[in-house]
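Read as amino acids, C-alpha cells; as here:

___
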Amino acid sequence: MLRPSCRLVFCLAILVAFFSVASGSDPDLKRYTSNLPFIMPAVGFPTFPSRVTKITDFGAVGDGHTVNTEAFAKAIAACSKAGGGRVLVPAGIWLTGPIKLASKIDLHLDRGAVIVFTGRFEDYPLVRTSFEGGDLVRCTSPISAVKSEDIAITGEGIIDGSGQAWRPVKKSKMTAGQWKQLVASGGAVGPDGSTWWPSPEALNGGAYVAKLYRSGNQTRLEDFAGAREFLRPVMVSLVECRRVLLDGPTFQNSPAWNIHPLLCEDLVIRNVTVLNPWYSQNGDGLDLDSCRRAVVYNCRFDVGDDAICIKSGKDEYGRRRGRACEQVVIADCVVYHGHGGFTIGSEMSGGVRDMLVRDCTFLGTDVGLRFKSQRGRGGVVENIHIWNIQMKDIPTDAIGFNLFYSGAAPDEQGETGSVRAARPVDEGTPQFRKIFFKNITCTGAERAVVLEGLPEMPIRDIKIENVLISSRRGFQAFDAEEIGLKNVRILADGGPAFSLVNARKIAVEKAACKPGAPVFLKVAGPKTAEVRLADTDLAKAVQKIERSAEVPADAVTEP
C-alpha cells in the first residue's frame, strides 16, 4: 500500500499527464503548424478537468420523443459550477431545443448518440447576431457559445439541426417528382412558382424584415417576431470564444450555415464530418469569420453551399469591425458537393491574410478554389498559400476569381470578361493580391482558371506553379497584373489554352497546351502589355498567338 506522500505524488503525476495532453502537446497540431509560410503564434488548446457529468443524471431521455432542453441546460450548469469537465451524451436519440455551452465544457457524444433539434420555432428566441457579414436579428442557434473559453464538442455522435423545418428549396434543384412531393407536404410556394417555403410566414418573412429595416423601427427584438420562421439560424454559433475544439462528431442538416466561428481565437477543428443536402439554401459547411489562429484538418464536407469558407464581414460593417481572418491552416480535408471546395468571400471586408490550404481533395465541387467579392466590399486578401490540391469533375472553374460576384450560385453566373468601365478607387474597392498556388491537379472542369479583376483594381501578384488541368476551356485573365505561370499545363478541349484581356506583366514559363489546340495564347484589350513567354513550346497549337487589333504590337515577347 502506498504511503500518503507517495499517493500524493502519484495523483499529481496523473493530473500533470492529463493536462499536458489537453493543453496542446498534440503531435498532429504541432505538425500542422510547423514550417508555415507566415508567422503563426502557437495555437492555444483547451483544457478540461477530468470530471464527467451525464445528461441522464438530470432527467434526459434518449427516446427521440422526449424534449431534453432542460436536462441539457441543467447538466451544463452543474458541470460548469463544479469547475467544468465533460458533459456526456450517451447512445440514444436526444431531442432538444437550443444548447448553450459554457467555459470549460466539453460536450461529448458517445458513438450512437444523436442530438436532434426540435423544429418548433418558438423554441429559438430572437437574438442580435452577425450573419452573412452584417449585424442582423436571427433565431437562436441550436448550439451556441458567447465569450467562452476552453470549450469543445467531441465524440463519435451526430448532431442534426432539423434544417428541413427552416430551409426554402428551389424548384430548379428538384426533379419533377421530388418537387410534387415537396409541395404536397405543405408549406407555401412563392408567387413565381420557383421556390418552396416551409410556411407562409417564412415565404413572406423577407419582405417583412426589409420593410422593418426601411422603417427604422427595428430596435426591439419583438419587432421581428412576425418573421421568426424566416430568420434561420446557423446551427453552431461560436462568438468571441477562445481555445475551441471540435473533434469527431458529424454536424448535419443545418437551418442555414452549419458551423460559424465568429471573432474566435485558437480553434482546432478536426476529424469532423459536415453534411447538408446539396440543394440546401445557404447550406455552408464551415465559415471561419474574422478568426485568428485556426487549424482545420482531416475533415469531410458534403454540403449545399460553400464547404470551407473564409469571411470577415461585409461592406462598411466589416470594415468598421476591422478584424481580418488570419493565421489559418486547412489541411487533409475532402470536399464532395459544395459551391466551392475552399472559398474566400464574398464577405471579406475586414481582410483575409496569412493562410495555408494544403493536401485537400475536391470531388465534384461547383468551383474548386473560389475567390469572390464585388465593388463596395473593400478589404484586402493577401498572403494566401495553396499547395497540393487534387480536384475531379468540377462543373465550373477549377480556380476562379470573380470580383463582380452577384450573389448567384456558380452555375447561375453569367459569362465573364465583358467590357466594364473603371470606377474611382475608394475604401469600398476590394483588393486580392499575393496569392500562391503550387502543385494543383484537376481532371475535368468547365474552365481551368479564371482571374476576373476590376478595371480600377486588377488582381495582382498571383503565382501559379506546377499545375495540370484538363478542362473544356482554358486559362482566362481579365484585368490582372503581375501574374506568374510556371510549369502550367492546360489541356483545354477548345478555344485558346491561355487568354488575356487587359492583363499586364504576365510571365509564362514552361507552359503547355493540349496537342492540336486551336490557339496557344489569345491577347485582347488595349491595356494588355509586358506578356513574356519563356522556355515554352508553342508548336503544339495550330496557331501560336492570336492578337486583337487594339493590343499594342510589342505587348507579347515570344520565346
About this structure: The radius of gyration is 26 Å. Helices lie at 4-22, 27-32, 69-81, 176-184, 200-215, 315-321. DSSP finds six helices and 40 strands in the chain. The first strand starts at residue 52 and ends at 54.
